[in-house]
Each structure stands twice: as structure tokens, then as C-alpha cells.
Design a protein that fits this description.
Layout: E1 3-8, E2 17-22, E3 28-30, H1 37-48, E4 59-61, H2 67-70, H3 73-80, E5 83-85, H4 88-94, H5 104-109, H6 114-127, E6 145-147, E7 152-157, E8 166-170, E9 175-179, H7 205-219, E10 223-226, H8 235-256, H9 264-271, H10 280-297, E11 300-305, E12 308-313
Parallel strand pairs: 3-4, 4-5, 9-10
Antiparallel strand pairs: 1-2, 2-3, 6-7, 7-8, 8-9, 11-12
């Protein structure tokens, strides 16, 4: 199976996003980049360098709903007539802008001040200029096979970074297209979301992410195409590094808690004191992901008071 990495620029600190072009019939693009003129031209020029045209793309698969991976999917669907696919848990977010995850009750429970939520909304309003809602979105679920004239890619549901994140695995070549589930030089951030199965609760993102990494470990991929940066060719070493990092971050957070009860917002300020205003949401997401993991492991206690959650170390 012929797989090409298409590096698409983004206006974000993370840098370019790696879209994947599978040059087998039907030609398939996995992830798209944001909806910017720079992203479209980068995609067009790299596809033409392979002797193809945008109109040759017949399928677009989105690994998850974040705009750096999915922002120009609708524009490409209109330009090419390609069918766009995603996991059903991502479909609601991909079908509307602004997406349903902008839920003020999530932030109220974490102790986020209203003025900070307003700042988040300003950032999201800007980000939403780089994504269009997708009008047609058939589902790809765990265990499905994406068939080509020669071979297929298996869909592997890897919740964590988002609830409906998927990877694609070529068994014969032991090649994994992992998007943001595997990032060689960046610790993937489990993002704050509601749980698609139980919308009244928060999605346990970090615990799910670590389970997803362990599941991929059993696939024993020889080569992993990542969502940003370089490929990973030693997945076992990568896995051990990420688990070690998560444990270290967990210990650091628990030490920062001291002896009193604190909100997730307060702890995010301690854990990431240097984070700027545009990184505050990511800092909060990582903090609450670790707190939920610690509560699940029994090392931290959570109690809700007047709608706000407070956390403290278990004695």
C-alpha cells in the first residue's frame, strides 16, 4: 500500500499537521488540515507533485474533530465530491460550528472564573473561522475495514485525545496511521469533553488514552505515522516513555495539592504557571484529566460543593 505524508501548515504553535494520502484505488486522504488558503495550496501542490489532482480524492477519513485535522474537510468535499467519514462520537462536533463541547457547565464545575470562560470563547470564535461544519458524514467504527483495490486499513478506535479518535492499521505492513494518539516529541493532551455515553459526566480522557496506547501496543506496529512531526519506529520504547511521563506528572500534581481542597482550575495554575492565555484551556484539560485518573486510582478524593468540584489527597 502506497502511503504518502502530506505536511500541511497550521497557524498554531504545534506547527504543520500530517495528513496521509493513500494512493490506492479509491484514493483516500486521511485528515485535511485547517480551512486556510495556505493549507489548501500546500495540499494541492503536494498532491500534484505525485502526478495527481485534488479531484482524484474519492474518500476523506477524519481521525478526530479538531480543526487542524478536519477544518477543510467540507471545503474539500465540495471541491472533489469525496465522501467524508469519521467515528460516530466525533460526528456531532464535526456537524456543527461552534461545536457542542463549548458547554459552560463543564467549566463551572472545575471552578473556572466566568471571565476566563469568556476568554476561551474569544479564542474559539477565532478558531471557528478555520473550520466548516460537514453536511454529510457516514460513520467508521472500531473493527470496520476501509477497503482498497489492494488491501485494506482496519479502523481502531483510540479514545483519549478525543472520545471518538480513530487510528488506521495496515496489518500486512504493520503500519499504523495514528494522528494525535501518537506524537513523537509532544505529549498528547487528553482534551476536556463530555462523555458521549453519559453526557451528564466528563469523559475520563487520560485513563482512556492510556488504555488506547496499551491496545496499540498489542498490535505491535513497526511504523507509526503521527499527527505532527516525525514517525515512530519503536513503539514499545515510545509507550514506556509516555507511561513514565504520565506517572511523573501525576506525582507532581498530587504534591502540588498540599493539604487542602482545591479546584481543577486552581491546580492548573500551579501545574502550568507559565501557560499563556491561549494555552490555558489545554493546561486545564491536562490537569482535570490527571485528577480524574487519580480519583479513579483512589489516590485523590473529589467532592462537589454548590456545583463546584474540589480535590484533595487521600490520607
Amino acid at each position: 500500500m502506497r502511503i504518502h505524508v502530506v505536511r500541511i501548515p497550521t497557524p498554531f504553535p504545534v506547527g504543520p499537521v500530517n495528513a496521509i494520502l493513500v494512493v490506492e484505488d479509491p484514493i483516500t486522504l486521511i485528515d485535511t488540515g485547517p480551512k486556510t488558503s495556505e493549507a489548501l495550496e500546500a495540499l494541492r501542490s503536494q498532491i500534484e507533485a505525485l502526478g495527481l489532482r485534488l479531484g482524484d480524492i474519492k474518500r476523506i477519513v477524519l481521525t478526530h474533530a479538531h480543526l487542524d485535522h478536519a477544518g477543510q474537510a467540507e471545503r474539500l468535499r465540495q471541491l472533489t465530491g469525496a465522501t467524508v467519514y469519521a467515528h460516530p462520537w466525533e460526528a456531532e462536533r464535526l456537524g456543527q460550528v461552534p461545536d457542542a463541547s463549548r458547554d459552560p457547565t463543564l467549566f463551572a464545575a472545575l471552578g473556572v472564573p466566568p471571565r476566563i470562560v469568556e476568554e476561551f470563547n474569544v479564542v474559539w470564535d477565532y478558531l471557528n473561522t478555520m473550520v466548516d461544519p460537514i453536511s454529510e458524514l457516514p460513520a467508521l467504527d472500531d473493527g470496520d475495514e476501509l477497503a482498497f483495490e489492494r488491501g485494506s486499513l482496519a479502523i481502531v478506535h483510540t479514545p483519549g485525545h478525543t472520545p471518538g479518535h480513530i487510528c488506521l492499521f495496515h496489518r500486512a505492513q504493520r503500519t499504523l496511521i495514528a494522528a494525535d494518539t501518537v506524537l513523537k516529541r509532544i505529549t498528547p493532551n487528553p482534551i476536556l469533553n463530555r462523555d458521549p455515553r453519559q453526557p451528564a459526566r466528563r469523559f475520563p480522557s487520560l485513563a482512556a488514552f492510556l488504555r488506547s496506547l496499551d491496545r496499540l501496543r498489542h498490535l505491535a506496529p513497526a511504523l507509526v505515522y503521527t499527527g505532527h512531526g516525525e514517525e515512530v519506529d519503536d513503539y514499545e520504547a515510545y509507550y514506556q516513555t509516555i507511561v513514565k511521563h504520565a506517572r511523573q506528572r501525576q506525582r507532581e500534581l498530587i504534591q502540588l495539592m498540599g493539604d487542602g481542597a482545591m479546584t481543577a482550575w486552581e491546580l492548573s495554575l500551579r501545574l502550568f504557571p507559565q501557560a499563556g492565555s491561549q494555552q490555558r484551556f489545554l493546561a486545564l484539560s491536562e490537569t482535570i484529566a490527571h485528577l480524574d485518573w487519580a480519583v479513579g486510582e483512589g489516590t485523590v478524593v473529589c467532592e462537589k460543593r454548590n456545583g463546584v468540584e474540589y480535590f484533595w489527597r487521600r490520607a
